[in-house]
Design a protein that fits this description.
Blueprint lengths: L1 E10 L5 E8 L2 E8 L1 E4 L6 H13 L9 E11 L2 E13 L12 H6 E7 L1 H6 L3 E2 L4 H11 L6 E2 L3
Parallel strand pairs: 1-6, 3-8, 5-9
Antiparallel strand pairs: 1-4, 2-3, 2-7, 5-6
Length: 156
């Protein structure tokens, strides 16, 4: 089943990226880092889903959502079922803040282990799985060349 999803690449004033660390309960040794975001509900626009997900996952209300920067398709197995996720990525620049996770869904409470702000150097050096895998290069490109005029297809 195809799952439309909105993701938000959140950067602070120091160019650090906010990511969450998750794990699939069916595969506890597989851990990965990903940005705020989640499924687009019926009748919801990608922008509205992005704002809602940021509020639920970070506590940050009324985020100044930037442009649609990337698209990504990700096929994977989660909770024992195959997922075909179609991601619409937005950009947001925010002042550093402390993440508030009280809005997490039951699944997020089970799956999300931690969150943190990452520097580009830390993203480049980590051996942890990032979403997308080449996140450091993609973010560095945004910082050097600016946001794209049209959304870019990015790899897994």
């Amino acid at each position: 089943m195809i799952r439309p999803t909105a993701r938000v690449l959140i950067l602070d004033e120091s160019d650090r990226v906010l990511l969450f660390r998750g794990q699939d309960p069916d595969q506890p040794n597989t851990r990965f880092w990903f940005p705020a975001g989640g499924g687009i509900e019926t009748g919801e626009s990608p922008e509205d889903a992005a704002r809602r997900e940021v509020m639920e996952e970070t506590g940050l209300a009324d985020i100044d959502l930037g442009p649609h920067i990337w698209n990504r398709r990700h096929l994977f197995k989660f909770y024992g079922e195959y997922q075909d996720v179609r991601e619409t990525w937005f950009f947001a620049r925010v002042p550093t803040f402390t993440v508030e996770t009280s809005g997490f869904t039951e699944v997020e409470k089970e799956v999300v282990i931690e969150n943190r702000w990452w520097t580009i150097a830390e993203l480049e050096e980590t051996t942890d799985v990032l979403t997308p895998r080449n996140l450091a290069t993609l973010v560095q490109d945004l910082l050097l060349n600016g946001l794209p005029d049209e959304p870019i297809e990015v790899p897994v």
